[in-house]
Amino acid sequence: MTTITCLGGGHGLFATLCAARTIAEDITAVVTVADDGGSSGRIRRELGQIPPGDLRMALAALSPRDARGRLWETTLQHRFGGTGALAGHAVGNLMIAGLTSVLGDEVAALDEVARLLGIRGRVLPMCPRPLEIEAEVVGLEEDARVVRPVRGQVAVASTPGQVRRIRLIPEQPPATPEAVAAIRGADMVTLGPGSWFTSVLPHLQVPELVAALDGTEALRVVVLNLVSEPGETAGFSAERHIHMIAQHAPGLGVDRILVDEDTVRGASERSYLERAAAGVGAEVVYAAVAELDADGRATGRHDPRRLAAALAGLGRR
């Protein structure tokens, strides 16, 4: 496999990129830009730039595995302590923000950091401007049927209610042109794993990205989460994750749904999942992709090596 484009954000995208780097010659990460918390939120509010945190994590994931690359990965991820103005800021966030201010362009800044790190590939924002996520949430009132809007990535990710759907503000934002080109020119495009409503589904609210996914000749792979997340997807079954894709991007086709073989084991549960997958034109592929601890128990995270083997084994459309 030559070229993989990975859509997502946060720790889920980090795992996918760590896997992809071992099986592809060229990798592009297309990253969400709606974070409004922590260091990213501060940079976003104070400088008006896209939040750099998820972009920084993607750069760290693609850093070379030699000693110099690991040094840069550690440095990018390092956060300042103390109580001063720098407290809580990640070094990589400040590098991206500084280069963006100097060069006047986020994509140019990210490309410059990639060159500094010796990365084989690119890290791109899915949209060239910061976005907000607004969710429809139930379960916040005594009447469980009442739907309330919750705005902001941190608020949506931590809501005690259950998210029904999301939208981006502003609605129908433009895509970064280089991200569209990366999807159209890839051999494989992955979506997920990650926080479903704040890292995965936001890509499907950008019309140009959806059109690129619809028109690409790449193998389109959805990597399902291993566990449901409190708040965002509490109580979600595997097939409900797929229903959310169909709801947020009606008509979009997918080719493969990659599922950990031990996460969905029952015959009836697999039947429901495969029926949901068929609704988006996809085949379900079961594989061992979960990380195991020293006692052989699943940790709830994807193992990059096992995920890489599973992705490499997927056939072309």
UniProtKB/TrEMBL annotation:
SUPFAM superfamilies in the cross-refs: CofD-like (SSF142338)
UniProt family annotation: Belongs to the gluconeogenesis factor family.
Annotated protein name in UniProt: Putative gluconeogenesis factor
Record keyword Cytoplasm present: yes
Top-level taxonomic group: Bacteria
Function: Required for morphogenesis under gluconeogenic growth conditions.
Classification via HAMAP family: Gluconeogen_factor
GO MF terms held by the record: LPPG:FO 2-phospho-L-lactate transferase activity
InterPro entries, sorted: CofD (IPR002882), CofD-like_dom_sf (IPR038136), Gluconeogen_factor (IPR010119)
GO biological process, any: regulation of cell shape
Keywords: Cytoplasm
GO cellular component, one term: cytoplasm
Annotated source species: Corynebacterium sphenisci DSM 44792
Pfam families in the record: CofD (PF01933)
